[in-house]
Amino acid sequence: MRLLPAAACLLMLSGCWSRIEINDRAFVTAIYMDKAEEGGYEVSLGFPLPNRLSISGGVSGVSSEGGNPYTILTKTAESIPVAIRKIRSDLSRELSWGHCRVIVVGERMARAGLDPLMEFVAREPNFHTKSYLMVAPGLARDISKLTPVFERLPNEVLREFARRRVTLDTSVKDFLEAAGKGGDTVAALLTIGEMEMLSEKGKKSVWVGTDGAALFKGAKMIGKLTVPEMRAALWIQGKMKNSVISLNSPTDGKPVSFIILTSKSKIRPVVLRDKIRFDVTIEAEDDVMSSESNIDLMDPVQIAKLESMLSEQLAGRIEKAVKKTKDEEVDAFGFGRYVEWRYPKVWSQYKDRWRSVYKNCPIHVTARVAVKRTGVENNSVVLQRRERQREGMK
């Protein structure tokens, strides 16, 4: 009698009726999407090939049988779901979206608008909205041909660019959130080329790197940021990591380089008499990386001069990037969100015409850079040699 309730519960369990075995799945690792010239969309999906991956001694690698351990399948159709359905029809396995972490769109599609893409990924329940979204300077399909020298798969190269903050780590989630505020945002821009690679036995191969950033207004690409302006975006978002800054010494004009160890940003909206301004504060700590100058790094006065120059340089870069977005009337850095959070009533008055309001908002940038350590060598080897020469003359 005691076992009857438990038995009754077991009868109600249906089991994993919809389960798909892992060896029946094709894992999508990247999406490359272009606007087709004849209309419609060209969709390319990247897949790893498990049969060409070997595991030896607990370490996975490339099979000795030869051939790339990945493949790219491309189809063109009048809509994104139809193109994906065509790819699925040519596969012996069922598509799995759980491992997709990178989406690359071509510049033509980015300028036409990303609403169709956002519509698809928002409705696909198994798609990760934290996937990084990047823009190709030409066709996204060309990016899929890159040679992964240090990684096994092309998508891993692109993912590491964003994860290591070499470029912007804008995600699908960022685009979806921006859509509710007008669709203004900024995303990473890639660059592509060919070069002879020693790893490929001297053959010319495709390489992909990072460039500036793509400005989006209403989910449509309307312009670009340069590399310094893109890095200013990282500063504004508080995502700058392990950056190197160089400037000319105030003593002899020779370069002194610094590495950024920590950084943080704060954006504060201020409303006075129905006028809005923003105070942007950037704080960073630097270490001296190298010095070719005769500047005395043990002199607090000289260190203070370097800190002032670093702060001025950083503030200038950020102001230039902000000015470009204001000229384009695109709130790419999401300043409007701070008004909505802090002054919801004020935001309700301006949200319908926020772009024109943002264009005229004063934005004050304050940068405070502190040089904490000078490294193992207190002063440059040049200055040390000169001091020893002076002592020898005495």
Automatic annotation (TrEMBL):
<dbReference type="InterPro" id="IPR046953">
    <property type="entry name" value="Spore_GerAC-like_C"/>
</dbReference>
<dbReference type="Pfam" id="PF05504">
    <property type="entry name" value="Spore_GerAC"/>
</dbReference>
<dbReference type="InterPro" id="IPR057336">
    <property type="entry name" value="GerAC_N"/>
</dbReference>
<keyword id="KW-0732">Signal</keyword>
<feature type="domain" description="Spore germination GerAC-like C-terminal">
    <location>
        <begin position="211"/>
        <end position="375"/>
    </location>
</feature>
<dbReference type="Pfam" id="PF25198">
    <property type="entry name" value="Spore_GerAC_N"/>
</dbReference>
<comment type="similarity">
    <text>Belongs to the GerABKC lipoprotein family.</text>
</comment>
<keyword id="KW-0472">Membrane</keyword>
<protein>
    <submittedName>
        <fullName>Spore germination protein B3</fullName>
    </submittedName>
</protein>
<keyword id="KW-0309">Germination</keyword>
<keyword id="KW-0564">Palmitate</keyword>
<keyword id="KW-0449">Lipoprotein</keyword>
<dbReference type="InterPro" id="IPR008844">
    <property type="entry name" value="Spore_GerAC-like"/>
</dbReference>
<feature type="domain" description="Spore germination protein N-terminal">
    <location>
        <begin position="19"/>
        <end position="191"/>
    </location>
</feature>
